[in-house]
Design goal:
- The chain is of the alpha/beta class and 262 residues long.
- The chain has an eight-stranded parallel sheet with strand order 1-2-3-4-5-6-7-8.
- β5, α5 and β6 form a beta-alpha-beta unit.
- The longest helix is centred in the middle third of the chain and has 18 residues.
- The chain is globular and about 45 Å long.
Length: 262
């Protein structure tokens, strides 16, 4: 029982052979969340979720795409999120590493996603890279306007940021990066995260974990990250897999009514 809380099944590397990718994943994975980053791909991502009972969709704009889609506001997100297979919003947030979109535009888009999350009750999937202080400040300010659910995806930030996110009631999702030899700080944080707030993901086709590093990532590789995390935390992989899958369905609660839950 494993859930991949963040993958991109419609991206190059997976889309060309999507059925085989899904078949390999299903040997171990019972739920996958297919994440959108551009409005132009929403229809395809939702169609995949309509076709596959163990795949769900999000609607959102990646911060690196914020300049391209300035008209995607909270109202548009709320409207598209009514679809029964759309269970989350994002990924959205701040990316000052690539800095391909104006930072003010990124921040406005991030706030629009949070507003939609607050209105719909659907979790926001947060991307943050080299923008820890601004991400934390915006999340806290918006939380002051009213609570909203969410997850920090592909967590690589500091332990202090993790604590701030946890204090706000958010979940933290760990990717295959945790298996990399140079990820000592992340490993220290991942080892102490409360199990009730922990998710795991692949971010496939990116960030394939050891022993697949350098290959195209697949949702099935979430099992390798789960095994590494279990060993790191001194837990059985069966228990960690079960608890993180339960957390996935608790956070993305719409999965429980929009399709079969294993």
């Amino acid at each position: 029982m494993l859930a991949d809380s963040h993958c991109h099944l419609n991206y190059k590397g997976l889309a060309e052979d999507q059925q085989a990718v899904l078949a390999r994943a299903r040997a171990r994975v019972t739920a996958m969340l297919n994440i959108s980053t551009r409005e132009s791909e929403w229809d395809d991502i939702v169609a995949t979720a309509e076709r596959e009972p163990d795949v769900w969709a999000t609607i959102g704009i990646h911060p690196n795409e914020a300049d391209t889609y300035p008209d995607v506001d909270a109202a548009k997100l709320i409207e598209r999120a009514r679809h029964p297979r759309v269970v989350g919003l994002g990924e959205s947030g701040l990316d000052y590493f690539r800095d391909t979109s104006d930072r003010a535009r990124q921040q406005a888009s991030f706030r629009a996603h949070i507003a939609a999350s607050r209105e719909t009750g659907l979790p926001i999937v947060v991307h943050t890279r080299d923008a820890e202080d601004d991400t934390a400040a915006i999340m806290a300010e918006e939380m002051g306007k009213g609570a909203y659910p969410g997850v920090i995806h592909c967590f690589t930030a500091s332990g202090a940021f993790a604590d701030k996110a946890l204090d706000m009631g958010l979940y933290i999702s760990i990717s295959g990066i945790v298996t990399f030899k140079n990820a000592r700080d992340l490993q220290e944080t991942a080892a102490r995260l409360p199990i009730e707030r922990l998710l795991i993901e692949t971010d496939a086709p990116f960030l394939a974990p050891v022993p697949h590093r350098g290959k195209t990532g697949e949702p099935g590789f979430v099992a390798d990250t789960a095994q590494f995390l279990a060993d790191l935390r001194g837990e059985s992989v069966e228990e960690l897999s079960r608890r993180t899958a339960e957390n996935f369905h608790a956070l993305f609660a719409k999965t429980r009514v929009s399709g079969a839950v294993a």
